[in-house]
Design goal:
heterodimer, A: 128 residues, mainly beta, seven-stranded mixed sheet, four-stranded antiparallel sheet, 11 strands, 0% helix, B: 107 residues
């Protein structure tokens, strides 16, 4: 059974960099074909996709966060990480990591994947 | 790309048939998934490819649609179905946007 677990500081100061790690157990993160995603949810609000890193190392980020986001993977630790720079109060949210399981490869090269395993989420508060 | 769900919230009773709609701002073929989220929990995948039921999900859940208009239907509401539902576009060439959510409450 695959499990994901987010970890990192629950409190970050404004203008600093938020850093979170997602540890994957029950399966190797280096096994090809999966997408490793970060999603966040502002208090009482909906889900916002942040970005993913593919097993090849390629990344795709939300355009609204692209200038501040970096997602990386550490296969030796079976972890992937999120860094969000220059945070502000608006970045206060529950942050989730999730595995993207591909199910369809289009002839144009796009890949559809569904988020089949999620972490429990971790609340990060940005303080001034 | 934007996904607009309707209604934003609804009240229904156990045993009711419920339909939630997700409209995309541009055509996304069948690149759509539906998730269920209960308070304090991570979302759970229900349907992908617009109409394919995830393994283990009860058959009272169904999805349909293609292009810009999609629906999630619960044929007979059960007490455990009261939750918030989200659609998501899943074409990797585009941002993997979620809809704003539909909160399903007990009447």
């Amino acid at each position: 059974q695959v499990q994901l677990q987010e970890s990192g500081p629950g409190l970050v100061k404004s203008s600093q960099t938020l850093s979170l790690t997602c540890t994957v157990s029950g399966g190797s993160i280096s096994r090809g074909g999966y997408y490793w995603n970060w999603i966040r949810q502002h208090p009482g609000k909906g889900l916002e996709w942040i970005g993913y890193i593919y097993s090849s190392g390629s990344t795709n980020y939300s355009p609204s966060l692209n200038s501040r986001v970096t997602i990386s993977v550490d296969t030796s630790k079976n972890q992937f990480s999120l860094k969000l720079s220059s945070v502000a109060a608006a970045d206060t949210a529950v942050y989730y990591c999730a595995r993207g399981f591909p199910y369809y490869y289009d002839s144009n090269g796009s890949v559809s994947h569904r988020f089949d395993y999620w972490g429990q989420g971790t609340l990060v508060t940005v303080s001034s | 790309i934007q996904l607009t769900q309707s209604p934003s919230s609804l009240s229904a009773s156990v045993g009711d048939r419920v339909t939630i709609t997700c409209r995309a701002s541009q055509g996304i073929s069948s690149y759509l998934a539906w998730y269920q989220q209960k308070p304090g929990k991570a979302p759970k995948i229900l349907i992908y490819a617009a109409s394919t039921l995830e393994s283990g999900v009860p058959s009272r859940f169904s999805g349909s649609g293609s292009g810009t208009d999609f629906t999630l239907t619960i044929s007979s509401l059960q007490p455990e179905d009261f939750a918030t539902y989200y659609c998501q576009q899943v074409n990797s060439f585009l941002p993997l946007t979620f809809g704003q959510g539909t909160r399903l409450e007990i009447k």
